[in-house]
Design brief:
The chain has 329 residues and is an alpha/beta fold. It has two domains: 137 residues, Rossmann fold (3-Layer(aba) Sandwich), CATH 3.40.50.720; 181 residues, Dihydrodipicolinate Reductase, domain 2, CATH 3.30.360. It contains ten helices and 14 strands. The strands form three sheets. The chain has a six-stranded parallel sheet, with helices on both faces. β5, α3 and β6 form a beta-alpha-beta unit. The longest helix is centred in the middle third of the chain and has 17 residues. 44% of the residues are buried. Bound molecules: 3-amino-D-alanine (2RA). The site of 3-amino-D-alanine (2RA) has 9 residues, from α5.
Length: 329
């Protein structure tokens, strides 16, 4: 497979290269792609040195697959150019996610929707992926009516500049500011920009993408997304109201047998998911599973995952693995 990684020198791009190697994805030729100012930079991959190339050069090399993590505008401008030469694009930006002609895929949930005709495939937002990994199997069995989610999101979701600001604040040095407020010792009630309705784009992604991936617009979702000074992954407090009643042991059993989900739930041993321990792992961890005693047929959950891995790079590569395994590329 000739594989292009567009945004190869960025935070998610670097994790993509790491995960491609870890999972022995069948890369015969790697095409690392980045902005013109980075062209020529050398990248080591699987014992071979590659030079970063520009976008048009990458298109001209006609990769089989192009994994994008380079921002929405680059995706809008260049994904169609790759698709036009026969490349299958899997894009991490929000550019194509809500396009009705594009598939929004979490392999464990809806990879079966994919066909050879899908040349631009959208990877969902990180905070959506980890939530639907847990909600999708529950919806199948108990039918979700409403979801209330509060997220506690890693600073890595904002990007390198924010991580650097956090490190500078701990070191007591002044540097570039990704946020106008200090990040450490703080919780910022804003992830991404605000929309007309007073919600942030991040919060509305949790609403819209959840409905599209699970395939049920009747699921009511409301979200509050908070940025906190951790680096290991995103955490989410999720309250779910079902149409049908349940018992907790069945819920735990169902999630325990869900591929890609690990139940960590024992208050006697203080066992519950935490970003410190989710970092660099590909599973979605769920715990604090308990009935919402204030509301019939309702459940509280705590969900944690590494936002750079299952939330971005690994999910993208799992989509690519599905395409290869099913001869769709
Ligand atoms: C964030 N999910 O965490 C968004 C984009 N990575 O900021």
């Amino acid at each position: 497979m000739k594989v292009a990684v567009v945004g190869a020198t960025g935070m998610v791009g670097e994790v993509m290269l790491q995960v491609l190697a870890e999972r022995n994805f069948p890369v015969t030729t790697l095409i690392p792609v980045a902005s013109e100012k980075t062209v020529g930079k050398e990248i080591e991959f699987n014992g071979t040195t590659y030079k970063v190339v520009g976008l048009q050069t990458a298109v001209d090399m006609r990769p089989d697959i192009a994994l994008f993590s380079a921002g929405g505008q680059t995706s809008l401008d260049w994904a169609p150019k790759f698709a036009a030469v026969g490349t299958t694009v899997i894009d991490n930006s929000s550019a194509w996610r809500m396009d009705p002609t594009k598939k929004l895929i979490v392999p464990e949930i809806n990879a079966s929707e994919l066909t050879k005709d899908d040349k631009i495939i959208a990877n969902p937002n990180c905070s959506t992926i980890q939530m639907v990994m847990v909600l999708a199997p529950l919806h199948k069995k108990y039918h979700i009516k409403r979801v209330i989610v509060s997220t506690y999101q890693s600073i890595t979701g904002t990007g390198v500049k924010a991580v650097q600001q956090l490190e500078n604040e701990y070191a007591g040095v002044q540097g570039d500011m990704a946020y106008k407020y200090q990040i450490h010792r703080n919780a910022i009630p804003q992830c991404d920009v605000f929309e007309e309705n007073g919600y942030t784009k991040e919060e509305m992604k949790l609403v819209r993408e959840t409905q599209k991936i699970i395939g049920d617009k009747s699921i009511a979702v409301t979200a509050t997304a908070i940025r906190i000074p951790v680096v290991g992954g995103h955490s989410e407090a999720v309250n779910v109201e079902f149409a049908n009643d349940f018992n907790l042991s069945d819920i735990r059993e169902l999630l325990h047998h869900t591929a890609g989900v690990v139940v960590q739930d024992n208050t006697d041993t203080y066992t519950y998911p935490m970003p410190l321990f989710a970092q660099d792992k590909d599973d979605v961890f769920v715990g604090r599973i308990r009935r919402d005693e204030s509301q019939p047929n309702s459940l509280n959950l705590w969900i944690v995952a590494d936002n750079l891995r299952k939330g971005a790079a690994t999910n993208t590569i799992q989509i690519a693995e599905y395409l290869v395994a099913n001869h769709l590329v």
